[in-house]
Specification:
This protein is mainly beta. The chain contains four helices and 23 strands. Strands 2-3-5-7-9-10-11-13-15-17-19-21 form a twelve-stranded mixed sheet, with no helix packed on it. A four-stranded mixed sheet has the order 1-4-6-8. The structure holds 2-acetamido-2-deoxy-beta-D-glucopyranose (NAG).
Length: 373
Amino acid sequence: MAPRPLSSVAVLLLVAVAAAWTGGADGCPASDRAALLAFRSALSEPYLGIFSSWKGKNCCSRWYGVSCDPTTGRVADITLRGESEDPILARAGHSGGLMSGRISPEICLLDRLTTLILADWKQISGPIPPCITSLPLLRILDLVGNRLSGSLPADIGRLSRLTVLNVADNQISGTIPSSLVALSSLMHLELSNNQISGTIPTDFGNLRKLSRALLGRNRISGVIPVSVGHMTRLADLDLAENRISGDIPASLGFMPVLSSLYLDSNRLTGHIPAALLASRGLSILNLSRNAIEGEIPDVFGYRSYYTALDLSYNQLRGSVPKTLVTAAYVGHLDLSHNHLCGAIPAGSPFDHLEAASFANNDCLCGGPLPACR
Ligand SMILES: *[C@@H]1O[C@H](CO)[C@@H](O)[C@H](O)[C@H]1NC(C)=O
């Protein structure tokens, strides 16, 4: 059957829809285009030449990394990743690119922006423009893997729609703004590997939607707020390699979905809460390199499933918990560099562990260590 010619009404409709999709015949508004060009002129990316596609009137069409809201024709999304699977980067023969320069405050003129991803370019420096907090629709702010400095904007809490805040692997300093806990939509918070100091806000637990909080490798001090234990969606908490002191709040043992907890290399003291070790769902617990004392609570059971349990380099006393043999699974176990004593229980998981897991204690004996006498 021969293709039927489209009726003129259908053609007109198609033209109208196409025009709406591209934001009209002129493309994006001149003000959005000007803001993008100002943003681009503060950056330099000489290797891949991605900005060479930023030409012509219509910034909503074929400008690499830019996309617009189809109904308003306004710029909604800037996604530029230095290390990506993107075929354009792959064809250029680069596993990753370099971009230097700064983030121009003119980005804040793109007041319909929902996503700003400027990730893994290694060399972008300068501050996060404080005016970024005036972008009312911003949902994703991902600036990981650059050399950004300065502090997080004090009024970051204004970004009421923000779901992802990732500034990990930069040189951000200053403290965690107290307004951060007002980010009621926040699901992912990644501040790891910066120079952030000060304390974790006491009401951090107000971040009810948060599922990952990665704050490791900073200079954070003070205690772990008790409110953290009231976070019902938090699955991954990383506070490793900071200067956190005080006790581990017992409330952490009652978190419904906590699955990984990294508190290693801090200044924690006190005892390990029994509820924490017994908590089901927790599969990675690293408390290594603190000053935790007392006995290891003997509270493991058939619901215990640990891919990694590292309690090494503390001041733990007493014996190796006998209930560990009842655990459903214990993969990696490290109890070394403590003051444990007595016989290592027989059976799984102890039959697959190496002597290094028990090294440098006071008087442990039995397989995999030499027999007790
Ligand atoms: C736990 O943390 C210590 C110190 O930060 C680190 O050396 C060790 O590899 C970690 N253990 C696991 C199982 O990740």
